[in-house]
Amino acid sequence: MTEVSGEDSLELAKSGAPPRLAQTGERISAGEVSGRDRAAAAAEAKFRESAFASGQVLGGRYRIISRLGVGGMGEVFRAEDLVLGQEVALKFIADVLSNDPASRERLATEVRTARRVSHPNVCRVHDLGDLGGRRFITMEYIDGEDLGTLLRRIGRLPADKGLEIARQIGEALQAAHDQDVLHRDLKPSNVLIDGKGVARLVDFGLAALSTEVKRGDGTLIGTPAYMAPEQLATKPCSVKSEIYAFGLIVYQILTGKPVFAPRTLDELYDLHKQPKVRPIELVPELDPAIDEVVMRCLEEDPEQRPESISQVLAALPGLDPIARAMAAGQTPSPQLLARSGACHRMSPVATWVSLTLILLGLLAAALLMRRAALIPQVPLEKPLAALDDRAQTILNDLGYKTKEMHRASDFDIYERLLWTFADKDHSPERWARVRRDRPAPIDYWYRQGVLPLTPSNPQAEVTMWDPPHAVAGMEAVRLDPRGRLRELAVVTEPSHVNESPGAGSWLTPKAEALPTEPVNGRAPCDVYMFKAAGLDIDQFNEVSPTRIPPMYVGQRRAWLGVYPENQDEPIRVEIGTLGSHVVTFRIIETKLSEASSWATPALSPQGNVGRTLIILAEVIVLVGGALLAWRNMHQHKGDIAGANKVAGVVAGLLFLSDLLLRRHSLSPALEAPLFRDVLQVAISRGVVAWVGYLALEPVVRRLWPRTLVAWSRVLAGKYRDPMMGRCVLAGVGAGAACTLVMQLGGLAPGWLGQAPPIPMYDRLAGVDALLSMPHALGAMLAIVVHWIGVGMVFVLGLGLMGLVVPGRRAATVLYATLAVVAWTLSRYAYPGAGPWWSLWLTSMLVVSIAMFVVVRLGLLAAVIAGVTFNLLIAFPVPDSTSMWYWGLSTSAVVGIAAFTCLGAYIASVDRQHAPSPLARTLPA
Predict the structure, then answer these.
(1) What is the C-alpha separation between 299 and 525, in angstroms, rounded?
(2) CB atoms near residue 184 (< 10 Å)
(3) The sheet that has 57-58: what strands, in order across it?
(4) Which residues are bridge partners to 91 per DSSP?
(5) What is the SS3 assignment for 187?
(6) Residue pLDDT, tens place only, 155-175
């Protein structure tokens, strides 16, 4: 009985249909083959007897030069293609197998599969031919020897040459994987080394599409000694299986010895259950990093192996595919970026330390936000629903109906009041006044009308002044946070000048809303308006009115006085009536009259420069981006698939966000145009994102490809990749760090006796994010979309800088410097920016963190950092748990913490103790 090695036994496995392999405990011998195997052996003998003679011309095209080899499947000849004048290799199958449908189909499959793979390190297969019923393949002729023969002849290769051969094999295998092709028979004898020392992957006879390998069928396909344990357990082959086989080859290249040299399958199963000899134990001078990578490829559990061959090559010293592509002057492809980069899981110690520090940073930022943010300091005692009810009650009392009306309401951050505070007060305690009841920097407004309220702003959001108060029946109420009246505006019809509005469709059926008889010499409507405002009319002195209201009035009256709870704040109250109905009411703080002015506040010189730089940068980025997008499309350089995904995400998230933030009704006639407007905005933003991504991605991929590695993996759907977990941890940590920097930069001037800047608030979300769970979700989605755009523009600017400034380091430093200058000067735009040293210091620190995250960790981590920063500002946690928005704010912070924990889990999850597939299939 002749024993054969595991590699030799492949010829048995490849003879005809897959033969029966020896059961555990049996020896594999040439005599123990099936009838089909004996037929193949007979065919081989026939081939040996009737081989084509040298010089013989086949089919009038191929002249035989010599026979290269013979095996159970047939013969391979070196021949000359007389038509093309090139040497080729002809692979014939045995006569008996030519009539076997399975063998003929296997040969056709080899051609189809090999044709899908085009790579310099893959042997090219030309065509499938037939000569007198004998099937053959024409393929590229390679003058050399197979790797197995070479290793048996010279032993191990030097480390540098071995790594070069490993790289070539790996790149060829990755090219096959990119086409969803699994080789399924990776071994040294299927790697040819040509005369120039270049490795070429051959023999796709057992290859299959990864989409077709769905489950194991109990048949061993391939060479047992080079099979992964899951293949030996008759489970489906996968990329992880090929990584295992690749590790076996690299091991043998570097040590000169195979990992497994069994004589029986029983022995092979036993070897898999035993610890493997590490390469460095056989070759002590081997780089430990190489040893570690090879052993990771040889993990018994597929989950513990690298995700792709490219990741293996990137981890091997000197074989980073991104570095090689850049050194060759090439642009790495999106697929290469998605496969590249380290994917090592974080150690438990590093994970716990990182997670603890990040959670502590989040907690510190959330607690400090109570003093650094605006919203927690303003006494927002009543929720939106309670203020809605209060506004409708006032309108009903004044004779205006509230049923069957189109409504809108919201909180409003009174920015002009904040600017006026900052301009009038330069003391360290100037923002203590925002904790007063009134004037409050956040107030509430309510609007209603007979016709739908259709705003004209691009966001299609109803505000206190959009749509304009121009249609009769429009009514608006402004209340302070406690529900006290600050302003009333009712649009009347021109025909009602100097007379009562009468029974308009927007009035209640009753003719008079309030008594007409004077009360203590005062008009009942005046008494009511003062009472609704929380004021005592008897404490005010009547004066001549000075304010010209923006609607028709019949009579105007005015009073001077002070707030009862704030005697230092003089106020003017003005009322306008038309007949017996009040159509205008306004409280004006006389010391803060600029806050009620329609004039735009003048910018400081620094603010003008900063805004000019920002606008100039935006124009350059937009124009440059459009030109780059056109060029990339024209030259087919853009990642169309990635752009489609980004555009789809942006459009989808914006669509959901707008739907969640809008006020809805049960009327299809009103919902249809709302749905149309929301869809139109979402699609337009998606198109902008699509164009922007086509402009951004190729430039950054060429100059800063590593910034897109994690981003490319997300687009490829690799959400559980350890790199995703690292980006989450780094992004949340950077976002919390930026938040703390801005908080301390806002509080430190007050601690040092200087005027602090305006407390932090989110101009994007305002107070809307705190109104309800749908509003919170809508605001979160809008924030995500916003920071995707900001991140893309920021990285695009970095890419454009790299085009005009030689050297990555110089471009990075110059771009960061310009970003600091532009952002700092733009913060001078309005009063309340704070001292100069605070502005410059916080700008430098935040931009430095942002640049570090972008350059070292990439776009994905930068977007996560921006979203974290924005969410912490948009969802400030108040001091009191009784505040109506405490639950939503706390939930948002807890959600960020949970997201961080998920990232830590993904980055460090350990499956080493999971049962091996081999252990479940082998007997004890």
Answers:
(1) 84
(2) 21
(3) 57-58, 62-71, 74-81, 86-93, 134-140, 125-131
(4) 76, 137
(5) coil
(6) 888 888 888 899 899 988 888
Q: Quick one: pLDDT at residue 661?
A: 83
With a CB cutoff of 8 Å and minimum separation 6, the contacts of 711 are: 858, 859, 860
* 1, pLDDT greater than 50: no
**Owning domain of residue 872:** 348-372+629-744+773-907
CATH number at residue 290: 1.10.510.10
**Number of structural domains the chain divides into:** 4
Nearest to 344 by CA among 870, 726, 869: 726
Strand-by-strand arrangement of the 144-146 sheet: 144-146, 191-194, 199-201
* Average pLDDT score over residue span 221-229: 83
**Whole-Å CA distances, 119 to 138, 259, 274, 311:** 17, 28, 37, 18
* Residue 451 and residue 393 share a domain: yes
Q: Confirm whether 185 is a catalytic residue.
A: yes
**Long-range contact list for 471-475, CB < 8 A, 24+ apart?**
472/504, 472/506, 473/449, 473/504, 473/505, 473/506, 474/447, 474/448, 474/449, 475/395, 475/400, 475/447, 475/448, 475/449, 475/506
Which pLDDT does position 343 carry in this prediction? 59
* Mean per-residue pLDDT of the chain: 80
Three-state DSSP class for residue 653: helix
Q: What is the mean pLDDT of residues 428-450?
A: 86
Residue tagged 């490809």 (tokens): 705
Query: Is 27 within the bounds of a domain?
Result: no
Tell me the CATH number at 80: 3.30.200.20
| The pLDDT of residue 520 | 62
Q: Length of the chain in residues, anyone?
A: 924
Instruction: Calculate mean pLDDT across residues 869-873.
Output: 94
In a shared domain, residues 133 and 71: yes
Higher pLDDT, 732 or 52: 732
Lowest mean pLDDT among 28-32, 407-411, 574-578: 28-32
Identified catalytic residue from 37, 185, 320, 658: 185
- State whether 445 and 480 are in the same domain: yes
State the helix-helix crossing angle for 886-908 and 773-804, rounded to 10 degrees. Answer: 50
User: Looking at the structure, do residues 156 and 284 belong to the same domain, yes or no?
Assistant: yes
What are the structure tokens assigned to 29, written together?
């011998």
How many angstroms separate the Cα of 112 from the Cα of each of 215, 373, 413?
22, 65, 66
Residue with tokens 């946070």: 481
Q: Which of 448, 445, 446, 444 is nearest to 407 (CA)?
A: 448
**Same domain flag for 286 and 425:** no
Does residue 397 sit within a domain?
A: yes
Residue 492 DSSP one-character state: -
Is there a domain that residue 332 lies in?
A: no
- The model's pTM is 0.70
Structure tokens at 238: 């996968």
- Residue 587 bridge partners (DSSP): 573
Evaluate whether 696 touches 711 at the Cβ level (below 8 Å).
Answer: no
* Lowest mean pLDDT segment, chosen from 94-108, 524-538, 718-732, 767-781: 94-108
Q: 3-state SS of 216-270?
A: CCCCCCCCHHHCCHHHHCCCCCCHHHHHHHHHHHHHHHHHCCCCCCCCEHHHHHH
Separation of alpha carbons 8 and 909, rounded Å: 40
Q: Where are the beta strands (DSSP E) in 424-512?
A: 442-449, 475-479, 485-490
Q: Please, what is the end-to-end C-alpha distance for the chain in angstroms? A: 28
Can you tell me the mean pLDDT for 288-295? 89
Q: Do residues 96 and 17 make contact, with C-beta atoms less than 8 angstroms apart?
A: no
- 476 has which bridge partners? 447, 489
In this structure, the answer to whether residues 368 and 407 fall within a common structural domain is: no
3-state DSSP assignment of residue 199: strand
- 158 and 110 within one domain: no
Q: Name the 3-class secondary structure at 475.
A: strand
- What pLDDT score was predicted for residue 446? 94
Torsion sign (Cα): 739, 742, 748, 754: negative
Is residue 534 located within the same domain as residue 514? yes
